Amino acid sequence: MTKHFSRDTAVLLKRSLRHITRSPDTIVTTTIMPIAFLLLFVYVFGGAIDSGSDSYVNYLLPGILLITIASGISYTAFRLFLDMKSGIFERFQSMPIARSSVLWAHVGTSLVANLVSLVVVVLVALLMGFRSGAGVSAWLAVAGMLILFTLALTWIAVIPGLSAKSADGAIAFSYPLIFLPFISSAFVPTDTMPGPVRAFAEHQPVTSLVNAIRDLFTQQPVGADIWIALAWCVGILIVAYIFAMVTYRRRIA
Description:
Layout: H1 2-22, H2 25-45, H3 56-72, H4 74-86, H5 88-93, H6 101-127, H7 136-163, H8 167-172, H9 174-179, H10 195-202, H11 205-217, H12 225-252
Helix pairs in contact: 1-6, 2-3, 2-6, 3-6, 3-7, 3-11, 4-6, 4-7, 6-7, 7-11, 7-12, 11-12
């Protein structure tokens, strides 16, 4: 069964990736907004923001990477919605394939597309002066956290992709996720915020992720932030996966 599932997922993943290569504007579109934020905050607002860091682009990049992921997973919901409306799911159900492989193929496509977008954003940040003395293990830890965060948000994206009534509805869920880093430590230290806003910012998942990634880039002790971040990602991933699978079974029943 595992071999059957793996083979079917690989075949469907190739199909989805082919769609991406035929429409590279998807990746371009998902990287434009994060890069625009990077340019705007570094070159326009950066001089007026006291981040306590020598380089604001170094301080800013972890939050921009999370915005890149939040922006990219909206296309997962969109592609899933199009497949649902086109009737391709019904065709797949008539074939002797593992049912869950259809969803996992979309999740795998999201992971690949987002990794490409993240690499593009990091390259732009390097051109803008981002520098890190982090070693290979720190970079691998950052990559692992970003992959886990991508998987968690992608499974959230699967739910509106399966249940939305329109393409706009399938994409709209990502807007709060894109906005969330703005109420976190991504752009300014949380101790500059008013009391209620600060309390929210310090107890939401983005802040712990940003702090952990920032500490890894700057070779600082990560402390509890990395464990809090991992707990948030794993918890969101498990809950989102369960709800996504329940929604999927209802739709194909």
